[in-house]
Design a protein that fits this description.
Elements: E1 2-6, H1 23-28, E2 43-49, E3 55-61, H2 63-66, E4 71-75, E5 87-89, E6 94-96, H3 97-104, E7 109-110, E8 116-122, H4 125-134, E9 136-141, H5 148-152, E10 164-167, E11 170-173, E12 177-185, H6 188-193, E13 197-205, E14 217-222, E15 228-232, H7 237-248, E16 255-258, H8 275-284, E17 290-293, H9 296-302, E18 309-317, E19 323-335, H10 342-348, E20 358-366, H11 380-398, H12 402-408, H13 428-437, E21 452-463, E22 468-476, E23 482-486, H14 494-506, E24 513-516, H15 534-561, E25 569-571, E26 574-577, E27 580-583, H16 584-587, E28 598-606, E29 612-623, E30 629-639, H17 646-665, E31 696-703, H18 723-735, E32 741-742, H19 746-754
Parallel strand pairs: 1-31, 2-17, 10-12, 13-32, 15-16, 19-20, 23-24, 30-31
Antiparallel strand pairs: 2-8, 3-7, 3-9, 4-8, 5-6, 10-11, 12-20, 13-18, 14-15, 14-17, 18-19, 21-29, 22-23, 22-28, 25-26, 26-27, 29-30
Length: 756
Amino acid sequence: MVATFETKTDYKVIGNSPIRHDGLDKVTGRAIYGGDVKAPGLIWGEVLRSPHAHARIKRIDTSAAEAMDGVFAVLTHDDFPTADEREVSTGEDVVNLKRDQANIMADKKVHYKGHVVAAVAAVDRNTAQQAANAIKVEYDVLTPVSNVDDAMADGAPVILEGLVGDHLGEEVENTNVAKVFRHEFGDVEDAFANSDIVIERTVSMSMIHQGYIEPHNATAIWAQDGNITVWSSTQGSFGVRAQTAGMIGVPESRVKVNYVEIGGGFGGKTKVYLAPVAALLSRKSGGRPVKLVMDRSSVFEATGPAPGGKIRMKIGATNDGKITAADTDIMLESGGYPGSAVGAAAICVFACYNLPSSKITGYDVLVNKPKSAAYRAPGSPQASFAIETVIDEICDAGGFDKIQFRLDNAAHEGTRRGDGVQFIRVGLEECLQAAKDSGHWNSPLGDAPEGKARGRGVASAYWMNGGGKSTCDIMLQDDGTVMLNEGSADIGGTRTSIAMQAAEVLGIPVEDFHPSIPDTDSIGFTGVTGGSRTTYTTGLAAYNAAHKLVDELKNRLADLWETEVENIDFNEGTFTANRDSIGIQELASKLDPTGGPATATASVNLAEAGNAYGVQICDLEVDLATGKTDVIRYTAIQDVGKAVHPQYAEGQIQGGVVQGLGWALNEEYFITDDGAMANRSFLDYRMPTSLDMPMIDTIMVEIANPLHPYGVRGVGEVPICPPLSAAAQAVKEATGKSYYELPVKPGRILEALNGD
C-alpha cells in the first residue's frame, strides 16, 4: 500500500517492480558467493581461537603445527607489521587499524572468547584444522567483564591496557570507558522543574547478532609481484581494500578486491576478519591462494554483533501534552575494543521529537565480548526502545492518545536534532497521520482466547540515512542496450534500483540494462552498501552519468544533423531537432562515424542524505501460563521518499520489522559467568522465522527527499527500530506489567506476572 502526499506521478520506470537482474542466477544456483571461489593450487586456512574471554597470552608454541605434513604456513600476531593508529571509515563506523588488527589476531591479550590467536594454511581444510588444534597456547586467565555496570565499576579489570579514555575532553587512564561525550541545548533542569509530568526509567538490552545466512569468508592470493587479490563476502569492496592494506602494511593500490555475491550482511559485513589473515598466509605459503571460511559458532563468538547496554531516560511534559525536556545517558557495549554505535544512538535518540531542551551523554564501554559492529540503523533501535518506552508511560500518566501525543510533539522541517543539526523536509507527521488513520489503529484488538491476553503497542523511530561517495559508469551498446557498472555491493536488489534511475533518464526499459559490479581496480571509489545510502547515493551517480551520456549523444547528433547542440531536445528516450527525430536505442547503431562508443562516468560525494522516519503498530497475544508471545497483527508505516522499486522497498521494511521483533522478544547473547556465549548456534539462538510471523502490512508514505531529483530516501535502516518498543508496550498492555529489559522473553513475562 502506498500513501502519496506530494510526489511526481509521471514516471515511466521508477515506481514499477521489474524482475531483478540478478534473480535468475540466484534462483538457479549460478551466482558465485565467496565460498564458491576456486583458484589453481587453492589451499585452506584455519584459525585457533581463545577458549577464554579475558586472558594474557604468555606463550604460543607453533612447532607441532609447523612440523605436520601438508602444512604450508603458521601465522601469529608477530607476523603482522606494526599497524598505526590511522582510522579508516567503513561507511557505518570507523576502524582503528591498530586495534582492529589486534581484533582479528590477538596481540598479547585476548579480549573475548573466540578471539583468534593463530592461523595455519594447509593442503586441505581437515589438515588445517588439525594443525590449528596442535598449536599450544599458555594463558594467564583474567576475570572477564560482561556488562556495562561491571565495566564502569571502580576497580574493574582493565580490558584494553594502555587505553586513554576521552571523558568530556579529559584524558583518563586505566578505564574501560573509551569515550564520554555530550550534546546539550536549553535549560534542561529548569524545564523539568516546570513540568507537570516527569518520568525517569532505565532500560537495558542484550547484544544480538545480525544472523546473516552466509558466514564470513575470504580467499586471497599474494602474487610474486607484490599485488594481492581478494575475494570476500562483504558490503563494501573498497572497505575491504582499505582495511586489508592497512593491516598488512601495503599501499591500497596493491590490493584488488573482486566482487562476489553476498548472502546477507545487515551491517555485520562492513568489517574484515579473514582477508588480512588469508593474505599473509598466502605470502608465507609461497603465493598459493588461501581460503578461510568461518563456521557458525565462530560467526557468533567472534564477529561484530549489535551492542547491548543500558540507557537512562528522563522526559518531562505538561498537562496539555507538550514535551518540555529530555535527558539521557546512553551506555553501549563496544565489545573488546572501542567503537560502539553510541555516537549514532545519540544522534537518533530524540530525533522524533521537537524538543525545547535536551541533554544527551554517551558512553562507549568496553566489555569482554566480541567487538561490536553495525546492525541496520546501528544505535537507533536501542535509543528508540528507551525513549518510546518512556513516551508510552507519559501518555498513560497524562491520559494522552499515543499517536496524537507524538503528532503534537513531532519533529518537522526546521526542528533541531539533539546534536544540533536542523532538519530539511521530513515525513514524520505524515507517517503518524497515516498510522492514526489506518485500519489497524482504528480496529478493535478482539477478544483473546481463554488463558491468553492481547495488547497493542505503537512506536516511532528515526535514522539519518547515509550519503558518501559513489561512482557509476554507463556504456551505450550498438544494439541499444546499456552496460552499467557501479561499485556498490548488491544486497537487496540495488543493481536494479540503480539501473532504474538511469533508465528513467534515458527512456530505455530497465530490462535493456545490464548492471554489474566490477573489482576495485575497474570502478571509481564507492562506499559501503549500508546506512540506507546505496539507492540514494549510487543511484544519484547513475542519474548524473545518464545525463552526461545524453549530453554526449547530443554532441554526436549535432554533427550528424549538422545543427547546433542547443537545437536538440531530449525527452523520454527521443532526440528531436527541427523536423529530425531519433530514439536513443536507434541512435546507438549509428555512432561509429561520430567518434565510436558513447560512455559516461559520474561520481558523487554527498554530505547529506535526507532523513527517514517510521511508525509501527504491533498487536500480540501472551499466553499467561507460559509467557509465550505471538504477534498477531503488525503494520509498518514509513516515509520512503519515492519507492523506486515498491516490492523491494516493502521487502526491506518487512525484513527489518522481523529482525526488530526478534530483538524485542527472543534474541540475546546468553553469556555465562566465565564470559562464554552459551547459545552460539541457530538451534539455541532464537531468531524468528516465517512460522512465527503474521503478514507484515506496510504503508509507504512518499514525501519527496529534496536532495534527490526523484525524491529517493533510504529505506532499509528504520524498520528495525520501532519493534523493540512497540512489542514491549504491547506485552505491557496485555499483562499490565512494564518491561525495561530486552528481550521480553517468556521467563521475564512470568517473573513479572508472578511478582518475582
